[in-house]
Write a structure and sequence with these properties.
Elements lengths: L3 E5 L9 E7 L6 E2 L4 E6 L4 E5 L4 E6 L6 E3 L3 E6 L5 H10 L39 H10 L17 H8 L24 H9 L18 H5 L28 H16 L2 E9 L1 H14 L5 H15 L5 E4 L2 E4 L5 E3 L1 E3 L2 E3 L2 E2 L7 H16 L5 H4 L4 E5 L18 E14 L5 E14 L5 H16 L7
Parallel strand pairs: 12-16, 16-17
Antiparallel strand pairs: 1-8, 2-4, 2-7, 3-6, 4-5, 6-8, 9-18, 10-11, 12-15, 13-14, 17-18
Helix pairs in contact: 2-3, 8-9, 8-11
């Protein structure tokens, strides 16, 4: 029996239901070895190279490039060279895609059929030999963009989705009118260069202007004295506002995913908010010294990730995910950090933060932020997570409430460090550096007392930061 294997559209996360086969890197009939790149697959969030997990031969390509296909769809057939064409065709004919629906979808009743909607006019079909991603080609056809005017910024001049978006925007470059022609015979009239330019702009004849400068030279004031001044506005004249027309920009795919997830979380998860103000003078002083000793540039957010990891290890009832009516408890803290990028907000995950030293946390967060800003995050960087931190303190925001990122059970919102006047235990009033923390909990799985106890532990770790190095 020949060794025949199916290659299907992968599923890289709970939210992934479909993908686009962008490009084959191996030709049909060609052999490949483990580690070779087979194809490029695009999703709502990322573009990923798919590498071979074993040695084989690409015997048959079933799915063409550029199509959006559901998870589990047969893309190609791998088989040894001794497999016959009849066996390959029989394998394709008998293949059945696996069921990929998540358990949360089971038991849902089918929604009634919606009323038929008039079909939209078909988009113009664009034929081109230039390298272009399928999503970029689809957008170009929808917006009727001439690809001849688009310059590709991708690998080897490949036209990306962002290139087409940029080409669809109106041209805002200034229109140059050329050099201003002024009187070229300076000996004809004795005037300064600026006076000549002003006279040309306002259509004044220098021969009719009497100069008041040295030796009768025509100066700027002489020309401006002959320029008509605009009439002053009458007192109490009504103000007429300029037309306020919006610039309409469609949501990209990542923004749509974020909007859908946040809307679902806000409407289905009962949030409870717990707030605390913590003193950070000792943390700021220790960070300055520790960074010098360790030779790293760990940020305040890195120390917060470390503190949250330690606190989650002590309070495993907060380190959870909620799936339907089941609560998943995790032994280690995988903390998602919110990163703002040009394509929207993403939440890469620092895995095992409870087991890391502070310099390891700093290295991990720096690498994730660099990948996020370069648009190179993989699903492994985004999938999962048991807790989230959203820090907007760098924007000067004192405090805010964050929406939980499902299926996680909690998220910590971090505000800016501010100076506050406080009374000490000795009755002395002094200024302190303080920071506001807001813990949002899923009240279905986390009680207020459990959240408050966790927040108290976190407060203690921040105000006595030596415990972060234990």
């Amino acid at each position: 029996m020949a060794n025949i294997r199916a290659f299907t559209m992968p599923k890289w996360g709970i939210e992934m239901t479909e993908g686009t086969l962008a490009e084959w890197m191996v030709n049909e009939g060609a052999a490949f070895t483990r580690g070779d790149t087979l194809c490029l697959i695009e999703t709502d969030k990322i573009s990923n190279d798919v590498d071979a997990e074993f040695d084989s031969v690409l015997r048959k390509v079933v799915a063409p490039t550029g199509e959006v296909l559901p998870v589990g769809t047969l893309l190609a057939v791998f088989a040894d060279a001794d497999a016959s064409d009849a066996e390959i065709e029989a394998f394709v004919a008998n293949f059945k895609a696996p069921v990929t629906a998540v358990a949360a979808d089971a038991g849902k009743t089918a929604s009634p059929k919606a009323a038929p909607v008039a079909a939209a006019p078909p988009a113009r079909v664009i034929e081109t030999n230039r390298p272009i991603s399928p999503e970029a080609l689809k957008l170009a056809q929808e917006l009727d963009i001439d690809l001849a005017t688009v310059e590709g910024s991708g690998r080897e001049g490949r036209i990306t989705y962002q290139d087409v978006q940029q080409a669809s925007r109106p041209d805002a470059r200034p229109v140059l009118l050329g050099p201003l022609e002024v009187e070229s015979a300076p000996e004809k009239h004795y005037a300064s260069p600026l006076a000549r330019r002003l006279a040309t702009i306002h259509g004044l004849d220098l021969g009719t202007i009497k100069g008041t400068g040295a030796r009768g030279r025509i100066c700027k004031a002489d020309v401006l004295a002959l320029v008509p001044q605009p009439a002053a506005a009458l007192p109490g004249a009504p103000f007429t506002p300029a037309p306020n027309r919006p610039r309409i920009a469609p949501m990209d795919k990542i923004r749509k995913v974020v909007a859908r997830r946040l809307t679902e979380a806000a409407s289905t998860i009962p949030h409870i908010y717990l707030r605390a103000s913590v003193a950070v003078d000792d943390l700021l002083a220790l960070r300055k010294t520790a960074n010098l000793v360790l030779g790293v540039k760990a940020s305040i957010n890195d120390y917060l990730v470390r503190a949250v990891g330690v606190a989650l290890a002590r309070h495993p009832d907060i380190n959870i995910q909620v799936h339907g009516e089941a609560i998943h408890h995790y032994p280690h803290a995988d903390i998602a950090i919110a990163v703002a990028t040009d394509r929207g907000l993403v939440t890469p995950i620092v895995r095992g933060a409870d087991q890391m030293r502070i310099e390891q946390v700093a290295a991990a967060t720096s690498a994730l932020i660099a990948k996020a800003q370069a648009g190179k995050l993989a699903y492994g960087d985004l999938e999962g997570g048991t807790f989230s931190i959203s820090n907007l303190g760098m924007f000067g925001l004192d405090a805010f409430d964050a929406i939980i990122n499902p299926p996680q059970g909690a998220i910590l919102a971090v505000g800016a460090v501010t100076r506050a006047l406080v009374e000490g235990a000795d009755g002395e009033v002094r200024f302190e550096n303080r920071m506001a923390l807001t813990l949002s909990c899923d009240h279905r799985a986390i009680d207020g007392a459990a959240g408050a106890t966790f927040l108290a532990t976190l407060k203690g770790l921040i105000e006595a930061p030596e415990g972060l190095f234990g």
